[in-house]
């Protein structure tokens, strides 16, 4: 504790030094931003001064002053190759008609860009810079510098227009050394980006926060704010009076941390070294003064934590510590023997209890399956005869009344025959389930099973204002009976309908999802009802168990479904979904590609 208290002033001094160094580095970045923005402004103004000189020289050429289209075209075309940042040089007369161009022979019509500064140049006899615009022919962002062409009497006889390619104008800053991650940006009076030294294609023409933008003359020389890319930067600002435009140099503020980090790391290592040295020294003193007591304290803590091994031998400096050492050893040995005996007894009782519970479950299941068998045999006998009569009658009606009855009636007869056959197959499946028999299997696609179930339940779902959605992400077949799987899915869907109705949901939803899980195909039926209470979850698939009121369920649907899926080598289960409702699912082994090809 004394060593730690002595280290606090050292740690405070290191923290103060680190903070002071960071502020100094940040001040260096501010000064560097001011220097770089002044240099960039000088580069940019020099380029504009060169254009001013070029405009003066061109204004003295007879071809330009007389607005000679042919001669102007040859002269301006030769100049364009020497100024790559110029998209075009255009000569217009006072009416705005094109009289010369460096790109193509002048047709005598309007220039490819609007002469926004034409009237201002003619009125003031001074140069003018246009706002941001896009060239109509090349679709490139440009600004136009317009200069008057003086006549013999000193009055303007036309206007000389320099179309500056804003994407190429960024090359004016290529020779300026910038810190890593820094960017130079030129914006107009509406805060629209005209030139950007990095990512020009993405940002040229974009406005920077137009609701909080300041006029170029009102922007402070140095300010800290977030740039277009979201990085906090220190901006050095300078006004380019020609626009007026604002030239900004943004240096990431994180550079201050990067530059001060080596010093921080060195100070941290010094602090850690000092702390470790002090701790080692303090531990050495404590160990030399109280080694026997520390050993006994460690042994007591180990025994309290559950480690009942005897304490390590140690040399006791006196008889009292020797007696205490021997007592600790005896106590640890006795506790270890007692715990070993208790663990053996608990393990034996746990095995006996598990065996009893397993036998009880087997007995209950056998008794319920026997009851199912008696019930199914009676149901099958009672329902088979009327079903056979219905199927026979529908078959006779199909054969005798095919011409007399209209097609819709024949379709309904066919539907009755189909559903009667399905009911007959269900009775057979119940009988097989009661006798623990398996039915013939074939390749079945779960998407076909879902389609058949929805065809049967679509009317009831629509009547109950329940939506359903199907997401089929697997088309692999499984080996099972189609009618048996249809019965399982139908049980799931009917349970979902009843759960939504009991919950009184005005926006009822039944979601069916088919997807792959390793080498199995999984089908899920989810609803947004109230779900199943946790106390009922372990009994969901037991015969005759139901959560529905009397008269609304027999408790056999899920138990029969369990037998069907289990006989196919699959797994069935329940889970609570994100809506708070129930999700019933089953998984079946997928038919392998090699087996499908062979079959």
In short:
The chain has 599 residues and is of the alpha+beta class.
Explained architecture:
The protein is of the alpha+beta class and 599 residues long. Among the domains are: 110 residues, Beta-Lactamase (2-Layer Sandwich); 161 residues, 2-Layer Sandwich (Heat Shock Protein 90), CATH 3.30.565.10. Strands 1, 2, 3, 4, 5 and 6 form a six-stranded antiparallel beta sheet that branches. A five-stranded antiparallel beta sheet has the order 8-7-11-10-9. Strands 13-15-16-18-17 form a five-stranded mixed beta sheet. Helix 1 packs antiparallel against helix 7. It is flat. The protein starts with a helix and ends with a helix. The model has no long low-confidence stretch (mean pLDDT 80).
* Fraction of residues in helix: 40-55%
C-alpha end-to-end distance: 80 Å
Q: What structural category characterises the helix and strand content?
A: alpha+beta
Number of strands: 18
CATH topology of the domain at 438-598: Heat Shock Protein 90
List low-pLDDT spans: none
Largest sheet: 6 strands, antiparallel
CATH class call of the domain at 438-598: Alpha Beta
Q: What does the average pLDDT come to?
A: 80
CATH fourth-tier homologous superfamily of the domain at 438-598 = Histidine kinase-like ATPase, C-terminal domain
Using only CA atoms, what is the Rg? Answer: 45 Å
Q: Any guess at the CATH architecture of the domain at 438-598?
A: 2-Layer Sandwich
Q: How would you sum up the global shape?
A: flat
Figure out the total of helices.
Answer: 13
Strand content: 15-25%
């Amino acid at each position: 504790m004394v060593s730690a208290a002595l280290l606090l002033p050292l740690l405070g001094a290191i923290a103060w030094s680190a903070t002071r160094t960071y502020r100094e580095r940040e001040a260096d970045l501010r000064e560097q931003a001011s220097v770089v923005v002044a240099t960039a402004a000088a580069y940019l103004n020099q380029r504009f001064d060169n254009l001013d000189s070029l405009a003066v020289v061109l204004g003295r050429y007879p071809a330009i002053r007389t607005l000679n289209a042919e001669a102007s075209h040859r002269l301006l075309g030769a100049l364009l190759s020497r100024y790559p940042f110029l998209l075009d040089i255009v000569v217009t007369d006072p009416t705005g008609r094109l009289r010369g161009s460096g790109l193509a022979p002048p047709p005598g019509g309007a220039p490819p860009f609007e002469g926004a500064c034409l009237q201002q140049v003619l009125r003031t006899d001074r140069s003018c810079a246009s706002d941001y615009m896009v060239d109509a022919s090349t679709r490139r962002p440009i600004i136009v510098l317009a200069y008057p062409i003086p006549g013999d009497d000193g009055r303007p006889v036309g206007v000389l227009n320099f179309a500056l390619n804003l994407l190429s104008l960024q090359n004016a800053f290529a020779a300026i050394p910038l810190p890593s991650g820094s960017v130079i940006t030129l914006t107009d009076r509406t805060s629209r980006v005209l030139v950007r030294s990095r990512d020009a294609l993405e940002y040229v023409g974009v406005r920077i926060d137009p609701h909080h933008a300041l006029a170029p003359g009102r922007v402070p020389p140095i300010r800290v704010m977030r740039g277009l890319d979201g990085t906090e930067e220190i901006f050095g600002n300078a006004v380019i009076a020609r626009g007026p435009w604002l030239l900004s140099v943004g240096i990431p503020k994180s550079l201050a941390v990067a530059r001060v980090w080596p010093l921080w790391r060195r100070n941290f290592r010094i602090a850690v070294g000092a702390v470790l040295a002090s701790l080692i020294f303090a531990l050495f003193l404590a160990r030399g003064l109280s080694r026997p007591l520390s050993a006994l304290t460690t042994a007591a803590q180990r025994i309290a934590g559950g480690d009942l091994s005897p304490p390590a031998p140690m040399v006791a400096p006196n008889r009292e510590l020797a007696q205490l050492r021997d007592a600790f050893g005896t106590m640890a040995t006795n506790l270890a023997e007692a715990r070993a005996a208790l663990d053996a007894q608990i393990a034996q009782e746990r095995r006996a209890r598990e065996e009893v519970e397993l036998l009880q479950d087997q007995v209950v299941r056998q008794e319920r399956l026997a009851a199912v068998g008696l019930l199914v045999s009676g149901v099958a006998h009672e329902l088979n005869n009327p079903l056979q009569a219905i199927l026979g009658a529908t078959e006779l009606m199909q054969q005798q009344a095919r011409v007399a009855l209209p097609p819709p009636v024949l379709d309904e007869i066919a539907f009755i025959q189909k559903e009667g056959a399905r009911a007959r197959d269900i009775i057979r499946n119940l009988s097989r389930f009661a006798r623990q028999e398996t039915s013939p299997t074939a390749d079945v696609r779960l998407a076909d099973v879902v389609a058949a179930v929805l065809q049967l339940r679509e009317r009831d779902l629509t009547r109950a204002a329940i939506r359903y959605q199907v997401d089929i992400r697997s088309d692999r077949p499984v080996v099972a009976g189609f009618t048996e799987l249809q019965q399982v899915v139908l049980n799931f869907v009917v349970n979902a309908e009843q759960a939504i109705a009991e919950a009184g949901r005005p926006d009822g939803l039944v979601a069916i999802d088919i997807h792959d899980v390793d080498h199995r195909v999984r089908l899920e039926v989810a609803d947004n009802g109230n779900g199943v209470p946790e106390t009922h979850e372990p009994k969901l698939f037991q015969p005759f168990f139901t959560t529905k009121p009397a008269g609304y369920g027999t408790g056999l649907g899920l138990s029969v479904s369990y037998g069907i899926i289990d006989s196919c080598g699959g797994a069935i289960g329940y889970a609570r979904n994100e809506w708070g409702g129930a999700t019933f699912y089953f998984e079946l082994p997928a038919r392998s590609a090699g087996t499908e090809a062979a079959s």
